[in-house]
């Protein structure tokens, strides 16, 4: 069996060192993390111990260490961006979801981030602060791998571009990065399908906003001061298209089909994208661009509907504010310039973060002359939040060996590790070594 524990020996606990570190942290005014164990989230492997803290910005940090820790650390960044208020247990669901890492001997640290919502640069800073808290409490890990899931992959990619310079000892904070189901096309184009969704919905249905309501640039999400729940937003989608209803009229079916054709968003995924195109867009406008619009659809030609000419004549054309677009690019676009091995894992039929994100990311990395540091693995699954369980420790182990000077892995190597782990972790290993994603503009209407 290929396991990272073949290369990393168990790391013994040192109670005296932990007590001394706790005292130093307390004197420095930092969270006395090592002295403050906390109950672990339910559902973790037996023997895991946990600690919690808040960093200087108020972000809640969760640390977990397995009984047989081998010296490796996973620095996890969650997706979303989640809009619910941050809490001490914000990342509890994440550690449960990826508990395979703990079962394989990896320690874990994650952050709630200092506030909810969008902010790639902020998220990267908060993630790095969480890693530093771990190091201050438990010492430098033998290997540190950054793991970003979904939108968290955008944050993690920015993290390794912006916060991974060598220290005085010549060592970088992060040795490698694992990006799973990643939103990696960059902030200025990753949401183009949702721009098209808001514009096409208004041309087809005209009810978000309704004619009697305050009118606003659709890509601001909602007008200032507006208060709507997710259920209220989705009811407008259902009323017009029948999506989510047990039955639908002929007119609703036609509206749904036209919306799918105009946006490329599968009908089953439409409610999620419609909500994000409301609330995440509002969050970006309120917290990043100063109330200005960063998105546009000028020049987009919508095709495949029941009346392309009519739709294109009616559809609202939105032009981004240059300063807002520049702010979004500075926050969330990627350069492809990193200095460590990166492995991506993505479901081929993912309808939340399209697999074409990977072709966009690969092109960015290639333009930076960095393709040798990137391996992309594709899985014949539709899941977004979590694919088959053994895939994750298999990918992590292959990446750790590569970062340690081993061979650059390919899809077949990850498949072999996955199959070896399938006796311990339930689920198939449906890696497709021949798959290559189509270009981004083949899936999302080009701007």
Automatic annotation (TrEMBL):
Residues annotated as signal peptide: 1-34
Highest taxon of source: Bacteria
InterPro entries according to UniProt: AB_hydrolase_fold
Keyword entries, A-Z: Signal
UniProt-recorded name of the protein: Uncharacterized protein
Organism lineage string: Bacteria, Pseudomonadati, Pseudomonadota, Alphaproteobacteria, Acetobacterales
